[in-house]
## 1
Amino acid sequence: MAISSTSSKTSRRAKLAAALLSYRGRTEPRTDLILGLAAFIIFLGIWYVIVLTGLVSARFLPLPGDVIGTLFRLLGEASFLNDVWISVARVWGAFFLSAVMAVPIGIWMSSYRIVGSLLEPVIDFIRYLPVPALVPLLIIWFGIGEGSKIAVLWMGTFFQLVLLVADDAKRIPREFIETGYTLGAKPSQITKHIVLPAMLPSLVDNLRITLGWCWTWIIVAEIVAANSGIGHYIWSMRRFLKTPEVMAGILAIGIIGLLTDQAIRVWHRRHFKYL
Amino acid sequence: MKQNCFVDVRDVYKDFGSDGPAGGAIRVIDGVSMTIDEGEFIVYLGPSGCGKTTLMRIVGGLETASAGEVSLAGEIVTGPDRRKGMVFQAYTSFPWLTVLENIRFGTRYRDDIGKKEKDDIARHYLELVGLKDYGDFYVNRISGGMRQRVAIARTLAAAPEILLMDEPFGALDAQTRDFLQEQLLRICRLERKAAIFVTHDVEEAVFLADRVIMFSARPATIVEEIHVTNELGKERTEETKESEVFFHLRNHVRDLMRKQSGLKG
């Protein structure tokens, strides 16, 4: 009895090891969760060791606990919350502007040859211009107010998004469109009733990914020229060498990003049940 | 020349790679003329890539002929519309809609009927193709054979004057295929709809057709028209495939097909 249970235990262990190490092997979700947590704990462990052994001074690398403690303290401070709110508003405002322009233009590009042929080379070119390099120019044009922030985010997302949308629309099987025609639909109805619903799941995915990029560009924009926002907060804390505050600011961005991303994923799963 | 035929294909040529019949383009259809009577089930049979699908798409208005013209009920075909219903080999039922919603989509652009009637028609065709119990299923949850039945029902719900089918059972297994062939015939007889069915499967062609149009390898010309109904009659059942007449017809068509595919040995 005891022997058989031990042997079954070892064989289960061997099976698990084999599954983990085999090429494209399968694991249970629980195993994945445990592995993910383990990596996180090891990461934090190394962090503690480095700081506690004095390898790096706590002045430059505060303990994880201090960073989290700082973040909790900041969450109680109105000025910090205001910075967070301003950044979130800028990100969402610019992202919204980008999306309402990119979605119809991208669909037009895929629907009408002339729009695609006209716009694609230009967009492809602008897409490769490094956004940080455009920041000085955008400040000259739009000043250091909200205009330049929105412009930076828009430059960083619109041109990418419009091509993603056009690609999504083009990927719809030709037979879907032809089915629409043979059922009596006009081109505008095909766009509304077939193209849009067909591409919607991948469109939402692309919007989610683009929204993530906005957080990169907002920090760039706020560090260069701003007197509010999380980027500005991080940058000003740096001046006083307040490393815990700097790291708490970064952590706050990470958490906001993660939460938005997960919220959209959940919505995606609920809304596109047929996938 | 035949007068008052329902579909009239007159001297159709098609070249790919250029708009005119001249030039260095590839000719896929080389002067085809044929007619279809009302309620007639036509099968286009020919080697793969011979241009039979292209000809059917020209009838449907989804391609334009390089020369020649097609008329449907006396009107020249200029583009696709609801009068020419199309079923493709690829699954075209919409994944974001349920089975019933897909079938109802067929009535969406009809202005000859009201909302209530559209609902009734959708239910009617749902039952006609035998999917009554699957109305609320998303199409990704049902089998390929069922998806093709959804596509056929959706096309019929649009009330087309002719049904165009491009190897709709091409991706299905043999049993499902046999079953759907019978279902399709039953429905087409019931609806009294003219149909063009494209296939390269000889047995399927003979079983379904009132008339098989045998095409040559590319560029397509008509090799022979086989008047199946004259010999087999309109009624087709499982036993039809066991009958001697069917064997005879099938062997004849198979030999034609082998010759065209260059497999005659």
Note: The mean pLDDT of chain A is 90.
## 2
Amino acid sequence: MDIFIGILEQGMIYAILALGLYITYRILNFPDLTVDGSFPLGAAVTAYLMTNTGDLVATISLGHNPYIICLYALMAGAIAGLVTGIIHVKFNIRDLISGIITMTGLYSINLRIAGSANVPIFNLDTIFSNSTMDMIFPESLLRYKVIIIATIITIATKIILDLYLKTKSGFLLRAVGNNEILVTTLAKDNGNIKILGLVIGNGIVALSGSILMQQQGFFEITMGTGAMVLGLASVIIGINVFKKIKFVKATTSVIFGSIIYKAAMSAAMDIRFARASDMKLITAILFLLILIFSEGKKKKVKVDA
Amino acid sequence: MLELRKIYKTFNKGTKHESELFHDFNLKVEKNDFISVIGNNGSGKTSLINIICGSLEIDSGQVILDNEDITNKKDFQRYSKIGRVYQEPSVGTCTDMTVLENMSLADNKGKSYNLTRGIRKNRIEFYKDRLRDLDLDLENKLNVRVGELSGGQRQAMALLMATMTPIEYLILDEHTAALDPKVADIIMKLTEKIVKEKKLTTIMVTHNINYALEYGNRLLMMNQGEIILDEKDEKKNKITAGEILSIY
């Protein structure tokens, strides 16, 4: 039972990351490695705003309110996406390389923001544990508190994305990933729309990083390593498992993809000789297997790195 | 009016593959002209329209559109007055979006792509009417992904989409070449109807000599970056396919 709760908790939190990657990779067709930096960026900003006792921080975060802090994390991620977008669009640097540049720079920036490679936030208010939440949740539901809160945030993110993708701006974003020439003939600059997509995607990714950090109770600089691969795996699993079922929206598929992925990882880590340090290797192998066995790979994976 | 003045264009400049295409190339397109452009591969027809649309940079010269020098304008800026249909049906539509979403996307050209609803419900009947005119059963496929349609259906949609909003110029880039003859005929008739209705100044590049003779009021024939035949109205109507083939 505890294993299932763990899978659902992690699956729901990482689903937000996957939704961010759904925007950049699936909608925009952009293999965005910024994610490995913007995911821990969200966590670093959260660590800073939660642990810094200065007046300014207390003021702008409305007294270290964890929900307000999440919004700051989201904004920080959006700025990271903006940087990658500008590098790619305005300086004509290839998509993968642009992301790598931002990701590399973010490693140092994240360390500066967080102050050190490992920052615990035990006993501080988080979105999961604060006086309001402690009041709302009865004793009997405490075990499911994280799942419930993470699910609410994930579904809210999904609904906002769904609504956005149905707006005129959302239409244009989808069109850019699908057919840049058409967008040009609509008298629109592809570049600015791509930048917008990267801003949205990385904002969501950083939000996910902030939430994961609050759930695990500490920031660590390595938490971004493999974040892009992990998110992509969830996107690809979700889309492929549910592609035959018409009434399931892509964003819903992605959320289920994240849970399936976490379950698969959990099963893989259960192999007797697996150590905790093998996780990234298993992540890589699992991702490779997913790519090999998903038919979608031919259409969407860009190999012009 | 559209005018190309003293256009020079050399490809692969400074390499051993250097080849000059346009050397002091000039062309005036009068308002409401419907020009058919024919010529061999490499004659410069596609380069000509790419220069007009801004997708091919020139070495020197000027592109003038309605008395405005647009030589330094980017391609997407030029398309505010220009509609374009390409050879490949997939280029003119978004294959991952539905028929209705595609129509709405194109219908918003020239306006802001903001956070209001992408599909304007009060325009659905209008889209249906336009689609019904095509006689391809598209009016009953509003919620079908465009990727699932046939090439002819997609190209008809591409033409509708390119001409949906008020534009003044229409560029047709071998837009019937990828279609079977029957569908190509339908698309050509539709093209003529739209061009007349909307009074569009049109440049059509084609390999089909019959279409070039049948449609439009002016015929241009190009060879190695030069115009070797330029006839209008009555003179154009007297030209026969045989004459064209003799100089092709």
Note: DSSP finds nine helices and ten strands in chain B.
## 3
Amino acid sequence: MVLGTYKQITLGRSTDKQIQKISQDGGIVTALLCFALDEKIIDGAVVAGPSDEMWKPEPTVAMSSDEIMAAAGTKYTLSPNNMMLKQAVRQYGLEKVGIVTIPCQTMGIRKMQSYPFGVRFMADKIALDIGICCTENFPFESLRTFISAKAGVDFDLVEKMDIGKGKFWVHTQDEVINFPIKETHGYEQNGCKVCLDLVSELSDISTGSIGAPDDWSAVQVRTNIGETVFKKAVDAGAIELKPIDEGKFGLEMLTKLAKSKKEKAMKVIDERKAMGLPVPYKASNEKEDPLANV
Amino acid sequence: MIARIKEFLGMEAQPKEVASKQEVEKVAEEKAKPRIGYIHLSGCTGDVMSLSENYDILAPLLTEMVDIVYGQTLADVWEMPEMDVALVEGSVCLQDEHSVKELMEAREKAGLVVALGSCAATGCFTRYSRGGQQAKPNHESFVPIADLIKVDAALPGCPPSPEIIAKTVVAVINGDMDYLQPMIDLAGYTEAGGSDLQNKVVNQALCIGCGTCAMACQTRALDMTNGRPELNEDRCVKCGVCYVQCPRSWWPADQINKDLGL
């Protein structure tokens, strides 16, 4: 199962016009967090919020819909959201925390919940973990370099960045520039190369653009918590659904990319093991399903 | 009782090994209560305080589920008896003959020796000792207990969280070896510190900048700079928790799936 265990897979998008305008794709993350906050399912959420520097996100505890919306949209660089959990629980005193995580961050949170060695009274305060799809991540300087050098755009003028259809897209007020995603290779952070998870398999609800048409997101509902929250949000009309296309540009594409990320990672994992380098995952011949995230 | 503790911890029953929750309870009732000793060496008592922070389950835990047969603050006993499990808090001071003797005796009399907390497991804060202080200026060398005896399992943490202590106790009573495996492996992790993140994660091309280490650090010695952990060595107590919690140090996939019901 290259997409992990899920109860439901669907396309979805926010019904809120304002969220649609600012969101990366279907606005699922923003819609869910705003809904969960309104419904008091969460007291606040850890998000990749804006910092003083353009396109450099800063882990932020968002306490209002406005703050959640200010963090909408994808930033293709590192935002160590997990570190803010401590502030959310200790400084802000939140009892029910929402958090947005890429797969590796989801893994850090789940490991902490199962084995909270030094993490006191935090494991039970994660009320909702929304995972986002991630192929790889870039250090900030990498991002700056290929935006200025490959796209030839001043960083401060960029209004939106996007990855899709094999290309990296840079939107400014006047133009849309793209270059092949292949050209970003060599700029990604190295730790991503052993990652076996494209879709945040361990989150409560995961979402991303792969397999979805423009302005929609593919959503996987995974845990019981995720199921409850998602159903409430849909019933309340915060999110509208339509079935995911099973074909080439839908589920097939998502499955293909998840599988290819896993295959590439397994190759690196096996190579590293052969060289005697540490890696937390099993070699392909040590596990039943060679593509499982173990 | 088991059900109550599980509910408290949000742990799920184990469908694989036993047919029903009732059976788990029955098995637990039928088993003899494990005899536990608490050996207090050079630590600050923070670990036993963390244990006692399991308010909801502490009284039944101590009275119904285990027998505390030895321990300075927990039992009025002078002679160390035979024990199933010895929980050791604190590192051992090589210049303190009483500590060394008590540790050796614990190893002889206990079936399992558990290093409870980072002082016992990694030396933690006491690693910085250079002696020359009152009341015993010659007490200088503090080492993790695994330097002197074989340790069966370790729970690093400064202190280990109340939850991990409770989860471990439940796993021991249920004989859940899958859950305990990481603690068994961690018995070998005796030289720890924030620099492990640089040496064993960043240097090994494994860091992904998730921030879990900075969240876990109990002394706020870690910050994230440009997506990588930055260590303030003056604040690091060498407890090892940052590296233990890092998703790239070891990965308990099966346990996580079980806990999430996936």
Note: Residues 101 and 131 of chain A are 5 Å apart (CA to CA).
## 4
Amino acid sequence: MDMIRFEHVTKTFGGGKRVLDDVSYSIRKGEIFTIVGPSGTGKSVSLKHMIRLMTPTSGRVWVGDDCASEASGRDLSRIRSRFGYLFQSAALLAWMDVEDNVALPLREKTSLSEAEISKKVAAALEAVGLAGEGRALPADLSGGMQKRAGLARAIVTEPEIVLYDEPTSGLDPVTSRRIDALIAELSSRLGITSVVVTHDLHSALSISTRIALLGGGKVLSIDTPGEFVRSQLPQAKAFLEAQYITKRGAWEAGAR
Amino acid sequence: MTISREPDPRPEPRGLLQRLGRAALSSLALAGFEASVCARAIVSMRTVFGRRQRPETIRQLHACAVKSVPVVSVVAFFIGMILALQVGIELRTYNQEGLTGSAVMASMLREMGPFMAGLVLAASVGAAMAAQIGTMSVNEEIAALEIMDIDPIRFLVAPRLAAMVVAVPALSFYTCALGVLGGAVVSHTQLAVPWETYFRNAMDFASQKALWVGLFKAFLFAFIIVTVSCCEGFRTTHGALGVGRATRRSVVLNFLLILIIGYFVTRFFY
């Protein structure tokens, strides 16, 4: 079953630059779908279309049976309630501590009691390994901890789909692998559909169900990790070689 | 209400005429955006003292009103002193320095009180609002709120508007009172006007109409400062450079609007 579907989506920016050019693909329920590609090829723009922070110049974006690109008002609220979003910068509110940040969507959008909210927040923080850090302000946390707090906020409402924008950028390798493990665990344990935008091929190969390679505004390929490392596409080869991934090593990583 | 973060798809304008046309259209679009944000914030104000938003509203009230008292005090006292000195010296030429209190009261109550409170708050609190919301925009915190289906206008603008609607008129009245006091000190020490004469003449000119017009102006300035500052914050792009630009634009626009609208309000009532 398709969870998200792009139908001939084109996005044009100032000066006529086509960031997405007649892009069509679909993301299945429960899979970890990773989008890779050089900078400026529309990876984050694709994510923003899924949750309608941007609208296509032409074409449509579907979330289940709802046309997200044309939704407004309550329909848009209902569509957005199905999503969690981990921003590249974590996007935590600076004046609130971690607990209040994570509790925010529950306090604002549900009628749960404070006791129930506290329970859910504690569970979310536990899931991302931040139990005991609830009273810290975002500025007092490291980059990796901020990302994990952002992830706790993204999953606390138990969304069907979580969008990850560069979840491992700027993090050390150990923290990066920890974030990867969290994404994989959330997907398998809760059945969440995950869409990950990343430059980190190690991460993409180790957690993805399928990998989409974007280039020049087009989807160049959609492969399993194994197919991706064997790809004969020059862009895929260049991407692999740039990150020193040999076919054998990457295959092993992708097969995990 | 959704804050648009769509880049402008139109090509760069060429030639003077195109640039002027683009600038006019952009100004109209900005005015429309500001009007819709202001209207939405007014509608959302009914929630600001609710259980969820009360702490934020109180925090904003503290930031807008209490923290502004020291700078407003210094400005108000010195404005009153300057006014008294300027007017008093002229009046002394005609042996009428006893009327200094009247002149200081009239101008403080009707004009200088709301203007000074408005300008000081625009430069301090308004600039801080633009910078904070601008930083939130570039850090994608505004987008995060929207994705959580939390209206940024209700969540961020309404508590600030509620705080400013209280703070600007209150500080305007305070500015006026302290200005008159500053004028009294100068009148007594430099112009040898007895305290009693100064305050009696001042109170004779403290008309109710002047008080209400002054407070009405201050009330309008509160809406201007919050709307302009928050909208400039929401429109911020391009990182730290953009935050700096937004802050500068908000201060300049606030100053211009406060002066222009203040003039027309005075003209309408007098």
Note: Chain B touches chain A through 22 residues (CB under 8 Å).
